[in-house]
Amino acid sequence: MKTILFLGAAMFQIPPIVYAKQEGYRVITTDNQPQNPGHALADRSYHISTIDKEAILELAQKEQIDGILSFGSDVSVRTAAYVAEKLGLPSNSYQTVLVLTHKGRFRDLLQREGLQAQQFQQFNQESEQETIHSFIKDIAGKVVIKPVDVSGSKGVSIIQAEADWQAEVAEALERSFSKEIIIESYVEKAGKQICGDGYMEAGKLKFICYGDGYFYDDGIHLAPYAESFPSTQADEVLTRVGEKLERILQKANFHSGTFNFDVMLTTEGKIFVIEIGPRSGGNYLPVAIQLYTNVDLVAAAVETCIDTNYELEVAVKPSTFFYACYMLHARETGVLKEIKIDPQLLPHIFMYHPYTKIGEPVEPFVQANRAVGNMILRFQKKEEMLTIMSDIRELCQIVVKTENNS
Fold first, then answer.
1. For residues 265 and 271, what is the distance between their CA atoms, to the nearest angstrom?
2. Residue 100, in any domain of the structure
3. Of 194, 271, 390, 406, most Cβ neighbours within 10 A?
4. How far apart are CA 352 and CA 104, in angstroms?
5. Which stretches of the chain drop beneath a pLDDT of 70?
6. Alpha-carbon distances of 373 from 14, 86, 101, 326, 328, rounded to whole Å
7. Are residues 284 and 200 in the same domain?
């Protein structure tokens, strides 16, 4: 019996754990949240942070694992690659994963290989304030400030070049594990942002599924709150996206495995890659993609971590339905009072995964880990899906009790 160590046991990380158990694998889980539901499914669970590489390596040696998997998390995917490399387990190299999960190194790769040009510069907590301000002033228009090594829009802000930048820089530095940030020029998009998951096999793009990403336009709530499949971008655009993603992954020496991506079509008609995560997407994206395409990226993520010769079955049999993922979320701090679902939405709720109970605290959805829950929605017609998704925030309302309305 093969043993797999899963880094993380949150609700959205349960699908690969369930798959592994069904296939007869021995499952070990670990993270710093002992209440996470995935632990209850494991053969053995531990309370060890997934970013503690040396402690996870010691655990992996103790449990004599055959594979290690970080599902839907950029933070712990670095640990997974580190441990796999140390133990000679199937994985992309630690260096490859570092490049793809470090925003500064990723931008350096794109620039160095002539794949994408953009004004950007990396800073750390020792950087002079004058140097940072000088760079911000050199960029015309808006700038984006990001921690280099966290995901889910944590610590990310968009500001005007002459705005009050010190607080945003301080916040990004505080969020960063390495106390490093990247400041880059803002890029305007045309149409919906392109998101989804794909699979590389033996250094070539084997499968990819494109969807639409849904965002607020206020420059404050930057985390995507929904994805729908398929993408509404033109086929010609999506072809160019796939070609560019494959080139980037090849330059990064990403050999095999699932990956998540966020891409935009710029107002100049260019393909602009925001990021590529060397792991499956969160927000139940792989589940929705399997429902829509009949390609099982959950199984692929698990099998690839124990078998270097795994081959993904890609006989795509598109569903007659259309699917969307929605992250239930609040826009203010308080206590969850009620979830109001319009009767128009009820017939389309295919799966519902609550994260927060009534009476528990909630925070504004400025980062992905603040979701209240997740829904997978199903539609018979694409037009119906797009109409519902355009109104989704009104059709599913999160009522919060705050100090002002208590």
1. 5
2. no
3. 194
4. 36
5. 161-162, 218-222, 405-406
6. 14, 36, 25, 8, 5
7. yes
- The pLDDT assigned to 161 comes to 62
Per-residue pLDDT tens over the stretch 323-337: 999 999 998 899 999
**Tokens found for residue 313:** 């079955």
CA proximity to 51, closest of 77, 28, 25, 72: 77
Does residue 7 sit in the same domain as residue 46?
Answer: yes
- CATH, residue 319: 3.30.470.20
Tell me the pLDDT tens digit for each residue of 310-361: 999 998 778 999 999 999 999 889 999 999 999 999 999 999 999 999 999 9
CA distances from 250 to 69, 110, 113, 202, 205 (A): 21, 12, 11, 10, 9
Domain that holds residue 153: 119-185
Same domain (yes/no): 301, 371 = yes
- Does the N-terminal peptide bond of residue 230 adopt cis geometry, omega within 30 degrees of 0? yes
The CB-based long-range contact list for 117-120 (8 Å cut-off, 24+ gap) reads 118/184, 118/185, 118/187, 119/184, 119/185, 120/182, 120/183, 120/184, 120/185
CATH number reported for the structural domain that contains residue 160 in this entry: 3.30.1490.20
**Domain identity same for 171 and 317:** no
Instruction: Clarify whether residues 333 and 260 are in a common domain.
Output: yes
